[in-house]
Amino acid sequence: EFETKWQAFESLVVGNEEKSRHIDLVVRSKSQIIEVKQTIQDLLNEVEGHRSLHEEVLFLSGTVLTYLTAFSEPSAQLLKVKLDHLTDIYK
Question: Superkingdom of the source (predicted)?
Answer without folding.
Answer: Eukaryota
